[in-house]
Amino acid sequence: MSDRNVLYTGKTTTTGGRDGQSRSSDGQLDIKLSPPGSGKAGTNPEQLFGAGWSACFIGAMGLAARASKIVLPADTSVSTEVDLTQGSDGYALQARLNVSLPGLDRDVAQQLIDAAHQTCPYSKATRGNIDVVISLV
């Protein structure tokens, strides 16, 4: 581990894998899991990853906006598509983030997206590891 200052630790336990259950230590998360496309009740790791990344990315855009004295639109949204893929080297992920910043000049919006992609912990974790496309919509 690094010498970085830990701000928060999310603790979860999953049983049963993709056909299981995930719970957080504080009880705030308690969800049923199911394989993607199975039609069974529950969510899957790809959806959870997309939800976490999009929330984090909006937070990073908010920080970039405040640093530039820009007001982030109240209806800012990030729609995330996380693909589970399979190739000759096994399973992998790829992702697309579609960012909506209504009312902002396109150049300003792109600057916020670029800054967020440099600072968002999810973006940092995936950089160079999976294919990622970020689009201003």
UniProtKB/TrEMBL annotation:
Compositionally biased region (Low complexity): 9-28
Cite the SUPFAM superfamilies for this sequence.
Answer: OsmC-like (SSF82784)
Reading the lineage from the top rank, the first entry is Bacteria
Query: What segment(s) does the record annotate as region Disordered?
Result: 1-45
Q: Which Gene3D superfamilies match?
A: 2.20.25.10, 3.30.300.20
State the Gene Ontology BP annotations: response to oxidative stress
**Which NCBIfam families does the entry mention?**
organ_hyd_perox
Tell me which family the UniProt entry assigns to this protein. Belongs to the OsmC/Ohr family.
What is this protein's record name? Answer: Peroxiredoxin
